[in-house]
UniProtKB/TrEMBL annotation:
Pfam family, one: Acetyltransf_7
Protein name according to UniProt: N-acetyltransferase domain-containing protein
Source taxonomy: Eukaryota, Fungi, Dikarya, Basidiomycota, Agaricomycotina
Matching CDD domains: NAT_SF (cd04301)
GO molecular function: acyltransferase activity, transferring groups other than amino-acyl groups
Amino acid sequence: MSSLRLLHFENEADFIEALRPHDDHAMNFALGSLLDNLDRSQAVSQERWGDHSRVLLGIYMDNDLLVTLTKSAARIPWMLSAPSDVDPLKLKERIIETMELLVTFLPTVVDPNTVDKIVGLKDIVDAFIDAWIAFMASKHVALQSPTATFTVRACYATRSTIPQSQPTLFADNIGLVVDMDQAEHLIPLAMEFSKHGPNPTTSEGARHVMREAIQSKRLWVCRLGEAIAGYALVGRITPRTVAIRNVFVLPDYRRRGIAEALVHATTAFYLNTDSAGDGVPDMPKTQVCLQVADPAVERIYKRCGFLIDEDAKDPITGKSGCFISVFRGIVPAM
């Protein structure tokens, strides 16, 4: 049987290079979050995540990367990821050994009390938490993990999956924000959006996010007259992928197709070979990634070309188009 080994990356450059062959939707959350945290243009908004207490671990089966466990900053959750080219059956067969390697190594590099929030592929997160609770019990520390507090369907779109014809409705109303003064108008929208996730923001936090997004050309809006009806914010930008992180439309403008138009516009832009002409670097991307928390809006993203169904396959690679990602906490047992 092939041997497993754990590799502790002590500098970010080595970890980024190791993930370079695996740069797709499956690793966007781990790699993209790290690159966001390293991006100096996002320095102010990234401060809310605390000091850069980074831990970058990889489990290899022979020379093949099997699983990564990463933490980019003190208040960012631990992230568990598996490359899309990993054979699911092999991973399932070795999952217990993999998690045992991780949980026995972690206390040698971090305070066990910092292992409190985990996000990632559901089956891996569940296996890790079971292993961690058992390991800490052997050290006479009783822990428990409530049911997942946040569950999303992680999916992506490519040039081969997006519709050939783009919607014309609101097409002339959508564009990149270049005027820094617009940040103030977007703060209430950003705060309202954040209420629906695990990390609500403050007005000051929203201001920093909006200003940095405008400066780095990552923010799209739909304007109707003088009003901003909604916005789309991208992030977790890697050499091959980009994630649509926020899509929000004010209640008064909903059910008009604005959210769908925003997703269409941003997705087509980042997959378009001509988009570099708009001054956005490292274009085009091969995949646009998305995490969907509300089943009621899944049909919107499906119409935009996202592989959101459980059995959806990439027409080019044949790989699964989505996976279930969970956010779980670990707390002292009552």
